[in-house]
Amino acid sequence: MYNELNVLIIDDDDIERTSLKRALSSTDFIYNIVEESEPQKALQQLTYQSFDVVLLDYLMPSVNGIELMLKLKKAPFVCDTAFIMVSNYADDELILDAINAGAQDVVLKEDVTPSQLKRSILQAKKRYELEQELYDSYRHMKKMAELDSLTGLYNRYHFEESLLQRIKTGLRHPSEITAVMLLDLDKFKHINDTYGHNVGDQLLVQVASRFKKVFRSNELFARLGGDEFAFACGQLKSLNEAKQIGNRLLGALAEPFNIDGHVIHSSASVGLAMFPVNGNTQTELMKCADIAMYRAKQHTIEKLCVYEDNMQAEILFKYKLETELRRASMEHDFELHYQPILKDNLIIGAEALVRWPQASMTQRPDEFIPVAEECGVIQKLGLWVFKQALKEMADYLNATGSDFMLSINVSPCQLTEPGFASSITSLIAQHDVSPECITLEITETALLNENVTTLENLKALHKFGLKIALDDFGTGYSSLSHLIKCPIHSVKIDRSIIDDSKSQHSMIKTMLAGVANMLQSLNMKIVAEGIETAEQASYCNQLNINYHQGYYYYKPMPRSALVNLIS
């Protein structure tokens, strides 16, 4: 209950003001009453002091009560003030207009009595308090709905709504630039898979904490979901200024994170789009930033990428290619060719290579295989390659015994599947092929993260009898630890090193000789792939690299041509 209330009476009629004062004074309640006859003076009263209730005449000479109330509500001290509209008449339309404008009640002057006015004031005050509680609850719920519960950052909804407002502001100031950046942590799934989701969540919290420290008050940032963050910076003068902000973000991740005793190194990829250069809506800008971020993820050094118009065409190409790949994997539109592997000019094996002759967009494996890996088609395609290779070559392998080696490529994505080893061993058993005749070719990227499931699959397949070859050795991730930790039987030296050996540059030749000596000291079989000239073949022989593969000898060919060639 209220001990006393501060009341402001606003009415241009002296008699009406006196009548209201008399009615208030006749109640058993304490009122501190201030009266004003002019709207401007009433506004000044609310500028310097607060009132619990304002009794406001609807019909004023210069302004009606609703218009005046809207002005008064903007005054500094109108924070807990209830408004009661007082009128000589009150039809339904007026009452609704007054309530919709923010009045808590409307009373007729002819009905004013001490008890009725007291009841109206108390009800208006209570109604106002309930409205405020409801509004405070709404604001709390709205804030919760706009915050990310894990990191405490704003979420996607708030970011997109705020970005929309910044764009509207930017339209009024065309000389200023607004930058939109999307940031995605690199290899975050690997961290979750290796250390668990709890560690992954803690990493996100610590990343968000670092971002808070490097961002300024006028810069908007949010967590969109997963390991993806968004940033918006307005009132910029140049692209370089935006890039500096992006590099500030990347710099925040430079130091490792210590989580539950694990030292975790985290990096990120940032895509940058600019308003109004790259778009005039938040949808366009975020789409462009996302495309640029996708490009940044493909780079190992430059992790901040600015959107360019040609990127849109590349994304569209990949999307269409992905769609066609999914269809092709369902309809088995692929086929296998085999490229011979030779030792001392004799064919001792062949590598199965997938071909896509019906493709309308590209038939190049170096273009469609990476897309298949990104969209998840590679698991189905890789299994088909294995089945088809065994189906086509089983009779020949069984006839020749272990004298002929069939090499089959395996994607890093396949190796991370828990059931991969068992599915391969089952296929080999179904075709009654000796596992010693099969070599699995894996790339160094498959071993880069030292995924536990990958290592378990490789060890299980090696134990079953398959041989493991490390393909593309020397492409930049080479590590002796890979050769020691994994059951590697042979190494295929990347064609880039073989190709560079044509150069008379002594460093290139010295490097190739050093690689060969190292691998031979580890008793590993070495295959030189990509040989295209007699000079390359001769130099490899000088280094005792006797296993050769390349166009100098044979191009990939269908199974029938391979069998005829060997026969």
From TrEMBL:
Transmembrane annotation, as ranges: none
One Pfam family per UniProt: GGDEF
Domain EAL: 318-567
Response regulatory domain boundaries: 6-124
Domain GGDEF: 176-309
Record-level GO BP terms: phosphorelay signal transduction system
Annotated positions of the 4-aspartylphosphate modification: 57
SMART domains: EAL, GGDEF, REC
CDD domains named among the record's database cross-references: EAL, GGDEF, REC
Source taxon at top rank: Bacteria
InterPro entries found in the cross-reference section: Biofilm_reg_signaling, CheY-like_superfamily, EAL_dom, EAL_sf, GGDEF_dom, Nucleotide_cyclase, Rev_trsase/Diguanyl_cyclase, Sig_transdc_resp-reg_receiver
Keywords noted in UniProt: Phosphoprotein
PANTHER family hit by this protein: BIOFILM ARCHITECTURE MAINTENANCE PROTEIN MBAA, DIGUANYLATE CYCLASE DGCP
Name of the protein this chain belongs to: EAL domain-containing protein
Organism: Thalassotalea euphylliae
